[in-house]
Specification:
The protein has 408 residues and is mostly helical. It is 74% helix and 4% strand.
Length: 408
């Protein structure tokens, strides 16, 4: 069984490496073409960032495989042997938390380079060392408090029920829904300052847009995202009464009113088409499949890993192997998501105009330095949004596309 899982992981590794190499080659050729959508300077900068990101992805993918190999050959058995705790729930929680902590520490250099190296070099990251360290401390404290409670509850469920995986799925899904409800009103304020939108004219237009769509919100807020990053974004956060509109201060500064309303109209399109409920349902399906799979792992697998079949080892295998399952399922969910994005674009253009949404998308891409072209394999494997070129074509924008030239 372990040999089969390792074989699957190697296949997963090779596909990811191949996709990264193909993307690097594709973007390298594309950057030599005439710039489209972005300004010429940002087109070249976006291509350079995409290539650098893919090279970093190659390194992290290889590192993840080394980490996986280390865990399955000796790491899990060594970690289990070090934890001589009699109480099963406490031992299981310690096992899982130690596993996550070790992965976090070993992966930290890549995160530091991405934030303070790559993103700083290309002008995205504005975060300072103090803010980064405070973010890490807050995240660790939240993880220790809530993660410990969650893994403790899951351990108790695993020990109490024969079909624990079904009850574990229900429990986990409820927790995910609760997190989504409290995220904008409890978690976000721990890391960012949320202030009610001061522009009364813009606020009034947004509220009119929400009313037209039938969405009740608890407010419209500006988020001080610029203290960490220069990218533009906006989102509807929360569920039920906690729903609120959150605009990055960077977005407010860069987009005209009609462009911003078109972007929000796009997000409202997801609400009107019940995409949020569909996403919740698809997430529940993916989670259910994972629990059904990892809840029925054969005992021989645990024997091969030289660990006891305890709640802790079951949860660690879930965390260790779930990327494989996600990687298999994501292309299907990505395909559905891209279809939903087209429909949301239609609604957003109806709220303002196709020209307003097109202009906003171009500004977002130019400011975020998002390279507009990608290899078809990358799109199929990873994209939840359609390529920008295709979205703009649907909105009636015409430009000299580079895909045809790359195909020859």
């Amino acid at each position: 069984m372990l040999e089969l899982i390792t074989l699957f992981y190697i296949l997963y590794l090779l596909i990811k490496l191949y996709a990264a190499f193909m993307e690097i080659g594709y973007v390298t050729k594309a950057r030599a073409l005439k710039a489209i959508i972005l300004s010429p300077s940002n087109y070249l900068k976006a291509a350079a960032y995409k290539i650098a990101s893919q090279k970093l992805s190659l390194l992290t993918t290889l590192f993840d495989f080394v980490l996986f190999f280390g865990w399955v050959t000796f790491g899990l058995s060594q970690l289990g042997a070090m934890l001589s705790i009699e109480h099963e729930v406490v031992r299981s929680v310690a096992f899982v938390m130690s596993f996550i902590a070790i992965n976090y520490l070993l992966s930290l250099p890549f995160d530091l380079y991405h934030t303070f190296g790559l993103d700083k070099k290309f002008g995205f990251s504005t975060i300072n060392v103090k803010t980064f360290c405070l973010d890490q401390v807050k995240s660790i404290l939240m993880f220790l408090l809530f993660g410990g409670a969650f893994f403790g509850a899951m351990s108790a469920i695993i020990m109490a029920y024969e079909y624990w995986w079904f009850y574990g799925f229900l429990f986990s899904f409820v927790i995910i829904l609760c997190i989504n409800m409290i995220y904008p009103i409890v978690i976000v304020p721990l890391f960012n300052k949320l202030t009610p939108l001061e522009d009364e004219n813009l606020k009034s237009s947004i509220e009119e847009l929400l009313k037209k769509a039938g969405l009740k919100s608890s407010g419209v807020f500006s988020l001080d995202a610029s203290k960490r990053d220069n990218r533009l974004n906006a989102y509807f956060g929360g569920l039920g009464r906690s729903k609120r509109v959150v605009l990055f201060d960077t977005l407010i500064a860069k987009l005209e009113k009609h462009e911003l309303l078109a972007v929000l109209g796009h997000e409202l399109g997801h609400f009107k088409h019940k995409d949020i409920l569909k996403n919740i349902a698809s997430s529940a399906l993916m989670l259910f499949l994972m629990f059904a799979l990892f809840g029925n792992l054969p005992e021989e697998l645990f024997d091969s890993l030289r660990v006891t079949q305890s709640p802790g080892s079951v949860m660690v295998l879930f965390l260790l192997l779930s990327p494989l399952v996600s990687f298999v399922l994501m292309p299907l969910f990505g395909l559905l998501s891209r279809y939903n994005e087209y429909r949301a674009d239609e609604y957003g253009s109806e709220c303002e105009s196709k020209e307003a949404l097109s202009s906003a998308l171009v500004k977002l891409a130019d400011e975020n330095k998002s390279f507009p072209l990608s290899h078809p394999l990358t799109i199929a494997l990873y994209f939840t949004h359609p390529p920008l070129t295709e979205r703009l074509k649907k909105l009636g924008m015409h430009f000299e596309a580079g895909e045809e030239a790359l195909a020859h």
